[in-house]
Amino acid sequence: MTALAAPARALPARARNRYLAGLLTGRGLTGLALVGTVALAGLLAPLLTGQDPDAQGPLALAGPSAAHPFGTDDLGRDLFSRVLHGITTDLALILSAVPVGALAGCSLALLSATHRWADTAVQRAFDLVLAFPGLILALAVTAVLGPGRWPVFIVIALAEIPLFGRQLRSGILVQREREYALAARVGGASRPRVLLRHVLPNAVDPLIVQAAVALSVGVFIEGAMSFLGLGVRPPEPTLGSILSQSVGYLATRPTFAAAPLAATTALVLGFTLIAEALNRGIRR
Predict the structure, then answer these.
(1) Scanning 71, 113, 177, 238, which has its CA 20 to 30 A from the CA of 228?
(2) For the stretch 8-32, what's the b/e string if a residue is b when 16 or more beta carbons lie within 10 angstroms of its beta carbon?
(3) Greatest CA separation found in the chain?
């Protein structure tokens, strides 16, 4: 019985090696480079720009120059400073909301795995959240709370709860029927101990991939809400709000949208490549 139960402790170490092997592929390194470059630029925004992102100037819609590498917006604000500070705002929201959604979803999945009645209630709650398209969910939350940081945080977290919850629940249902889990139960381990000590460590592999996917989805949600005026309040910059500002000037000043669009694309593509690399590493 002990030999059968051993893989429950050995698998996580092998999983870590598979994650690392996946990240060290071309896709993984490219994704890490894209996300790392954008994130580092956002973190170093005060040092790289030296300008107040909200300070207005006389040069509205000016082209790129030594003083304004990305030009200025329609109010004369430095776009280089606004884009870098917008990256910081976006990442702060996404990196805080996704873990909260993941933790809530995983906690509900563990609850549903322990009680049949809880499983039914949790799955119906997940169905209710998934029944709302992302835009409708964003409109509903903003209608109650108004635009700002908290609605964006709540929408991202709510959107991720059922995804993480169902992912973990599926893994638990598969793993608890494996030989090592059955051996642990026959050996006298309690149901919670089998779940937490043996089943859970072997059911988390898909969650690592889901976390990377969730971060890319979070970029989309924040960008869409800010683009529609449902996100962070002006004048605080976000990539979505800068893109929204640039729409009216695409014909006369197309470079207005270039920098925020490039940063958003780099983040989404980077997180997607990381997710794909992790997925391939896990499947090895």
Answers:
(1) 71
(2) beebeeebeebbebbbebebbeebb
(3) 77
Which one-letter amino acid corresponds to residue 257?
A
Residue with tokens 């683009």: 227
Q: Are 71 and 62 in contact (CB under 8 A)?
A: yes
Give the torsion sign (CA, 42, 47, 50, 54).
positive
Q: Which secondary-structure segment (H or E) carries 184?
A: helix 179-186
Residue pair 239/223 in contact by the 8 Å Cβ criterion: yes
Kindly report, residue by residue over 163-206, the tens digit of the pLDDT. Answer: 999 999 888 888 777 777 777 777 766 677 777 777 777 778 88
Helix (H) or strand (E) holding 13: helix 7-23
Binned at pLDDT 50, 70 and 90, residue 82 comes out as very high
Q: What is the pTM of this model?
A: 0.87
Q: Give me the residue label for tokens 């910081």.
A: 88
Two tokens at 210?
């889901």
Dig out the tokens for 130 from the structure: 């998934």
Distance between CA 257 and CA 242 in Å, rounded?
Answer: 7
